[in-house]
Amino acid sequence: MTTTIREKPFSLAKSRRVIQWLVVIGTFVLGLRHIMPGETSRGGSFDSFCAFGGIETLLPFLFTGHLLKSTNLLNFSVLIATLGVSLIAGRAFCGWLCGLGAIQDFVAEWTRKLLGERRHIRGKQSKTILPLHLPAVVDRSLRYAKYLVLAVILIASLYAAFPPLREFCPVRAVFGLKMTSLLWFTLIVFLAGSILVERFWCKYFCPLGATLAIFNKISPVRIVSDTNHCNSCGRCDIECSMGIKDVPLNLDDTECIRCLECMDTCARDGSLELKVIKS
Fold first, then answer.
1. What is the rounded distance in angstroms from the CA atom of residue 79 to the CA atom of residue 20?
2. Phi, psi at residue 6, to the nearest 5°?
């Protein structure tokens, strides 16, 4: 049994951009708060507000009863909230509420504009050189890297004093405002990667994305395709920032970040709908 939420959404892209900007601004404010004198002791460190910090410190807490340094119980609260969103709507956190995801979307848009795309026409392939589309065999292989990163971090967390990703964390590099040479290196790689390949970090290296991927298969809120309306025009494939092929046939793909760009760009009413799937 299914319940339709809405048949044809309006201004989904604009609504998501507003939310993304609010998230980015809020995260920058959080970073600023933690570099102000006397603020680091109030509410925990910047790391304490990271959902993935809860994953990094989970095994040490379960096996030893101690948390990794720079994390606290707030990490678990943020992680539980993130998992709650994912349990309902899959990887919607990645598409709507992740500051790093938003920055990558902004960088991709700005890159196209700098390279001559004055106005993006939805459903039309951009003629700019960047961002690139990696060869399929390279892309497929790199997609598994984030799961390897997750496994390495989980194992390393059992022997670490601080969260294993901390010194190379792109969230700290972009929003933390307390820079080290390693974080400057991370920032440069992150921005360069985002210019070269759309959603570079999300596609290939994000361990939080790897953690949330499974929820796309079990979440009740999903995008559903009606083959009686869809004519396989390929517009949604073009707009998919995660590079999913044959989008209408792969709406529960673990790479989908529920950004709803496919629905926003669809030219045929009823082809793609957001629904609650009831068991």
1. 19
2. -160, 145
Alpha-carbon distance of 142 to 132, in angstroms, equals: 15
Higher pLDDT, 123 or 28: 28
Neighbours of 279 (CB within 10 A): 4
Instruction: Output the pTM of the full model.
Output: 0.93
Q: Are residues 221 and 203 in the same domain?
A: no
CATH number at residue 245: 3.30.70.20
* Euclidean distance between CA atoms 279 and 276, whole angstroms: 10
Which domain range does residue 235 map to?
217-276
**What's the pLDDT tens digit per position in 124-133?**
999 999 999 9
Tell me the Ramachandran region of residue 198: left when phi exceeds 0, alpha when psi lies from -120 to 50, beta otherwise.
Answer: beta
Burial of 120 (0-12, 13-18, 19+ CB in 10 A): middle
- State how many domains the chain has: 2
